[in-house]
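Support request from a user on the community tier.

User writes: "When I paste my structure tokens into the form, the page sometimes reloads and wipes my input. The last time it worked, I copied everything first. Here is what I submitted, just in case something in the input itself triggers the reload:"
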């Protein structure tokens, strides 16, 4: 059995501890670390493992072979590199790091030490996303014209060091990369600061993919309910996906050719049948950690690599930079500032 530990047992880390504890035939949870003595002790007691205030002491005494790193983003690079330099495999919660240079350092450290680095973009493991991707690859919707994500939430008190683009929109940036499997050739974003004075809490973004398809993101922390929805519009119909309830529907375009090919011309759109697609529901975090453990055991790449995490961070940072640009109309001319 592989020995696992969790560093940081806040809202996400404590769930990592739970999943490891339940994987009793593959993994042994040997310890948790958190600088908050009350929180750490409570989680340790719940899962019958030691709590360590000093993570280095945990590494020395419990000797974990793999670690889930669920600390604030600013510590990902420092602690992640320390772990991998000790030969420990790491699953780091998203975003991979605060900067692209830090992300690259994590990737290089993993390669140097021949250890697994996985990034916790959990939506890839959502069963409804897995089924949606399979249907897209079978070209059930034909040529894709538009993919739109809506991720709305109340403000989370747990967030202290990032805005909504890095923390929340990164889920959908990664999802669009995963589902489309195409380069992003252009993007534009707008951000708002409504509740916060120091970081954005609302975001709208546009992406153009190499095929010509458009990605639309609507993400915020200012909605008094939680929504996680994805729609994909193609020549043969539209997928509607609810990521929370794990429900997937396909709305047929009755006028589309029965056998779509790239030379066909879409001549119209009309309402056809609505197909509810059966999903074998399960917790995405369980699938994510199972993939990480299997990657460690089998010596293969995880589903979400360090490179994937770095690319998603790069796009998110470009959206933020785009949102800070101001274009003014002056005497009939557009002036960028």
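"...and here is what came back when it finally went through:"
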């Amino acid at each position: 059995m592989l020995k696992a530990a969790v560093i940081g047992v806040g809202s996400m880390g404590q769930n990592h501890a739970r999943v490891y504890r339940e994987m009793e035939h593959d993994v042994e949870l040997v310890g948790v670390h958190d600088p908050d003595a009350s929180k750490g002790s409570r989680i340790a007691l719940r899962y019958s493992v030691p709590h360590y205030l000093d993570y280095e002491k945990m590494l020395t005494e419990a000797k974990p072979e793999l670690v889930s790193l669920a600390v604030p983003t600013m510590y990902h690079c420092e602690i992640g590199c320390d772990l991998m330099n000790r030969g420990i495999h790491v699953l780091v919660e998203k975003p991979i790091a605060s900067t692209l240079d830090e992300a690259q350092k994590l990737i290089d450290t993993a390669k140097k030490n021949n250890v697994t680095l996985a990034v916790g973009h959990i939506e890839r493991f959502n069963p409804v996303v897995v089924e949606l991707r399979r249907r897209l690859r079978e070209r059930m919707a034909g040529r894709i014209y538009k993919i739109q994500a809506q991720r709305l939430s109340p403000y989370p008190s747990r967030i202290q060091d990032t805005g909504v683009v890095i923390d929340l929109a990164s889920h959908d940036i990664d999802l669009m990369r995963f589902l489309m499997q195409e380069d992003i050739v252009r993007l534009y974003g707008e951000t708002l600061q409504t509740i916060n004075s120091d970081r954005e809490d609302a975001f709208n973004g546009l992406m153009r993919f190499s095929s010509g398809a458009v990605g639309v993101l609507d993400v915020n922390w200012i909605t008094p309910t939680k929504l996680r929805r994805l729609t994909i519009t193609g020549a043969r119909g539209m997928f509607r996906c609810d990521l929370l309830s794990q429900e997937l529907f396909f709305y047929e375009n009755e006028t589309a050719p029965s056998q779509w090919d790239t030379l066909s011309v879409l001549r119209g759109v009309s309402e056809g049948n609505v197909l509810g697609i059966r999903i074998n529901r399960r917790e995405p975090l369980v699938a994510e950690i199972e993939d990480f453990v299997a990657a460690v055991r089998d010596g293969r790449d995880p589903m979400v690599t360090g490179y994937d995490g770095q690319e998603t961070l790069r796009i998110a940072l470009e959206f933020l930079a785009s949102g800070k640009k101001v274009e003014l109309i002056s005497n009939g001319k557009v002036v960028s500032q």
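Agent notes: The reload is a front-end session timeout and is unrelated to the input. DSSP finds nine helices and 16 strands in the chain. The longest strand covers residues 144-152. Escalated to web team.
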